[in-house]
Amino acid sequence: MAETYDFLFKFLVIGSAGTGKSCLLHQFIENKFKQDSNHTIGVEFGSRVVNVGGKTVKLQIWDTAGQERFRSVTRSYYRGAAGALLVYDITSRETYNSLAAWLTDARTLASPNIVVILCGNKKDLDPEREVTFLEASRFAQENELMFLETSALTGENVEEAFLKCARTILNKIDSGELDPERMGSGIQYGDASLRQLRQPRSAQAVAPQPCGC
Amino acid sequence: MRRAERSPAPPACGLRVDPYGFERPEDFDYAAYDEFLSAYLAVLTRRALKWSRLLQGDSGLRRTATVKRYIRKGVPLEHRARVWLAVSGAQAQMEQNPGYYQRLLRGERNPELEEAIRTDLSRTFPDNVRFRKMAQPCLQKALSDVLLAYGLHNPGVGYCQGMNFIAGYLILITKSEEESFWLLDALIGRILPDYYGPAMLGLKTDQEVLAELVRVKLPAVAALLDGHGVLWTLVVSRWFICLFVDILPVEISVLQTVLRIWDCLFNEGSKIIFRVALTLIKQHEAFILEATGVPDICDKFRQITRGSFVVECHTFMQKIFSHPGSLSMTTITRLRESCRAALLAQR
């Protein structure tokens, strides 16, 4: 079945082992928590079409193995990503401490303009928390990241994290800050927008898109 | 907590959990499996008789042409651990180092290693009832000990994700921690190139070697991947890292296929991995070539590790020695050298 969408964004999910990257992706795509899951070896892949600010956007999401040594294998997949979820586990300081290294990888290997949202996952395990909200939000501010605490278990803020990242990219396209036509932007026009581009302007108003905010 | 809906009771003809503790998937095709099994049982019976005779003989398990032929046709389950230990050299190592495994576990601890292993314990074979926390006995403890001992024994490698599946699988087959440890040592220390070390250079090299072999033997597939800028890492790194465990779906029917692959791996070495990979790709060449984009290519490479072709292990194992054509160790060694040099130059 052919899907129509205005844009396609390449996304990454990165962060240390055991932070719940694959569970976040699974929750976002399947709308449920993956109870019995294997860890990711190498790179996995998922996609979903979302509606953001009246535009349909296909998110092509690359989920990566978190163990340090796999970075040398997965890095090749960073190239041309438009957005990233940078994930740590709020109950593990160690996963928080390695954020800077992951961020450097994303900005040098994907694109300096990559839109990154920091996700403090396992929000449902608040009693075991080792990283405060305040501390992480300061880190996010200093590094110009968006920030949410998420729970792949309950689904809290999972959808929001992906949508927020997508919305920011769309805004940057609108403002001209991001150019989808630039090589390696991680953004492609979909069939829908190509059709619109080919059609005379008057035809564009026929089917207004519902607002998905 | 929400869980995936379960289907109603399985048909009376089959058990929901196989003899190794793996839960069968909801869409398990009992009829097709029974049909395959009734034919395969005859093969197994014949092989079992021949193996009993071989093992009773004086020549035993020296690596002769007869033993190689026998192993390619499948080692009966009851002899599997013994044969793997003998042909891989693990048995000799174990006998030369009595008590070594236990001493490793009593020795100095390494908290970082322990933490890395702990992260993956509940993520190893989650679909196997014996690896669940509530199982009695729970194999997570054995798994943890084998991985820990190995990381202490070979600190250059430590623990790499993927080793958990291999160790877990060895524990299921040998039912012995110590034997699993020495077999893991045979695989990581001798049989496989450096797949699991921090630089994973052996893994990256072998992925490139496979790419080169596909370029020569199946140029259309290579052109498809190259054309879409798909790196072979994406589609095959799991095949190499997990040695087809957890790739070819692990219920008993396909488990047989993985066991049969490992029979040859322990006896003939890492070349077997290329034979299996090339056979899977060649068999499904037309199907792979239908792919129109990167996600589609990934999906097709996932699908080719499923279905009747891989379930029918006896035919599958015959095909890995005929389908890919000639594949000499000289070729592999030469390709490994050139790919490794190219990778080192890129750094």
Can you walk me through this structure?
The complex is a heterodimer of chains A (213) and B (347). Chain A is α/β, with parallel strands linked by helices and 213 residues long. Chain A has a single domain (5-187), classed as P-loop containing nucleotide triphosphate hydrolases (Rossmann fold, 3-Layer(aba) Sandwich), CATH 3.40.50.300. Chain A is 31% helix and 23% strand. Chain A contains seven helices and seven strands, in the order βαββαβααβαβαβα. In chain A, strands 1, 2, 3, 4, 5, 6 and 7 form a seven-stranded mixed beta sheet that branches. The model of chain A is unreliable at 198-213 (pLDDT under 50). Chain B is mainly alpha-helical and 347 residues long. Chain B has helices at residues 30-56, 65-72, 77-88, 90-96, 100-106, 111-121, 139-153, 163-174, 177-191, 201-217, 219-227, 232-242, 252-268, 271-283, 285-289, 294-303, 308-311, 313-322, 329-346. The longest helix of chain B has 27 residues, at 30-56. The chains are: A alpha/beta (213), B mainly alpha (347). Chain A: Its main location: membrane.
Brief summary:
The complex is a heterodimer of chains A (213) and B (347). Chain A is of the alpha/beta class. Chain A is built from seven helices and seven strands.
Q: Into which percent range does the helicity of residues of chain A fall? A: 25-40%
Using the alpha-carbon principal axes, give the shape of chain B. globular
CATH superfamily of chain A: P-loop containing nucleotide triphosphate hydrolases
Amino- and carboxy-terminal Cα gap of chain A: 26 Å
Listing every helix as H and every strand as E from the N terminus to the C terminus, the arrangement of chain B reads: HHHHHHHHHHHHHHHHHHH
Structural class of chain A: alpha/beta
Main sheet specs of chain A: 7 strands, mixed
How many H/I helical runs of chain B? 19
Largest interface, C-beta within 8 A: A-B, 27 and 31 residues
**Given this structure, which CATH class of chain A is correct?**
Alpha Beta
The overall pLDDT of chain A, averaged over residues, is 87
Number of self-contained structural domains of chain A: 1
The major β-sheet of chain B equals: none
Residue fraction in strands of chain A:
15-25%
Q: What spatial form of chain A do the alpha-carbon principal axes imply?
A: globular
Give the end-to-end Cα distance of chain B, rounded to a whole number of Å: 46 Å
Helix content of chain B: 55-70%
Low-confidence region ranges of chain B = 1-14
Number of strands of chain A: 7
**Overall SS class of chain B:** mainly alpha
* CATH architectural type of chain A: 3-Layer(aba) Sandwich
